[in-house]
Every structure is written in structure tokens, then in C-alpha cells.
Specification:
The protein is mostly helical. The protein contains two helices and no strands.
């Protein structure tokens, strides 16, 4: 059974990840609406579009990390580097 310290640590990780996600979404929303709309004359996005785009970017980053960790030793027969 897990002790309270391990549960609290996972709770902090979840809160930190969600805070980072929403902060990055706000920054993406603000950045798009100031840069792309004013300078490149693109259409405005709503916050829900920024959340969707941020979810897409996070999932691409996590999947690339997953594939790199999974297949990093595939070229040498699955053996770890001798370094």
C-alpha cells in the first residue's frame, strides 16, 4: 500500500502538469491573437481552440518522447549503450 507521501507527490505532479497546460494555453491564445491577428491578419481564435491546439502539441510531444524511449536501443539489438 502506498503511503501518504507518494500520493501527495503524484498529486503535486498532476497539479503542476495541469497548471503548465493551462498556462501554456493562455500564452498560446494571447500570442496568436496578438501576433497572427495584428501582424499577419489571420482570424482570431477562442480559448477552446487554444486548448485543443495545446492538447495536440502536448500529445505530439509525449508520443515522440514515448517512441524515443521505446525505440532508442532498437538499432543495437535492444542492448543498452556501453557508455
Amino acid at each position: 500500500m502506498k503511503n501518504n507521501h507518494e500520493i501527495a507527490r503524484h498529486g503535486k505532479t498532476v497539479v503542476t502538469t495541469l497548471t503548465l497546460f493551462f498556462t501554456a494555453s493562455v500564452a498560446l491564445h494571447w500570442g496568436w491573437n496578438t501576433f497572427a491577428v495584428e501582424i499577419m491578419e489571420q482570424t482570431r481564435i477562442t480559448f477552446k481552440h487554444a486548448l485543443g491546439l495545446q492538447a495536440l502539441l502536448f500529445s505530439l510531444a509525449l508520443s515522440s518522447l514515448f517512441f524515443w524511449l521505446t525505440f532508442k536501443n532498437a538499432g543495437n539489438g535492444g542492448k543498452a549503450d556501453a557508455r
